[in-house]
Write a sequence for this structure.
């Protein structure tokens, strides 16, 4: 099972640095740590979603995604390693297609909302997009895998589709944007 953490605090980060899995110490505000924090936040948010009444097929999907995100976090903690595999991107694409085919075509913009689970899913989508942006930023200075970028890109799309499903199945229905509301108001 490996070493167990018997003490949570180490005091080694008191100087504003943190250790990667490779032993390398980096500033806590480095681009790599920023992405790792985004992925951790996203994974935690999916955990909050799993505390909501979510259909079984979606909760199983969310749990699988949590495992993938943990792998992604591990890859980020070990620069130069490739833990994310292209098969996981293909898996996401299949789930995205399957989930989307249950929905009517989208003809309008959707506002975040439609019930608590759907709103949390939209929030997870936004956090996922932030993680993707920060990963792209990191890739300017350090190598990152293309698979990781693809995974986050597909995941944000899947979370959007899942939010639509949740709004319709367990929420209050989709909330459509009504553009141009400011015109003529005064």
């Amino acid at each position: 099972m490996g070493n167990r953490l018997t003490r949570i605090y180490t005091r080694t980060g008191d100087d504003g640095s943190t250790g990667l899995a490779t032993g390398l110490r980096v500033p806590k505000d480095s681009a790599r740590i920023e992405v790792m924090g985004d992925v951790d936040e996203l994974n935690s948010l999916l955990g909050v979603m799993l505390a909501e009444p979510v259909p079984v097929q979606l909760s199983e999907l969310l749990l699988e995604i949590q495992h993938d995100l943990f792998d992604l976090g591990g890859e980020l903690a070990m620069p130069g390693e490739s833990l994310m595999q292209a098969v996981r991107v293909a898996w996401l694409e299949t789930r995205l297609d399957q989930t989307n085919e249950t929905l009517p075509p989208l003809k309008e913009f959707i506002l975040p909302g439609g019930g608590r689970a759907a709103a949390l899913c939209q929030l997870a989508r936004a956090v996922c997009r932030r993680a993707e942006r920060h990963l792209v930023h990191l890739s300017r200075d350090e190598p990152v895998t293309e698979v990781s970028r693809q995974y986050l890109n597909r995941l944000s799309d899947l979370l959007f589709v899942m939010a639509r499903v949740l709004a319709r199945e367990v929420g209050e229905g989709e909330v459509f944007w009504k553009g141009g509301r400011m015109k003529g108001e005064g």
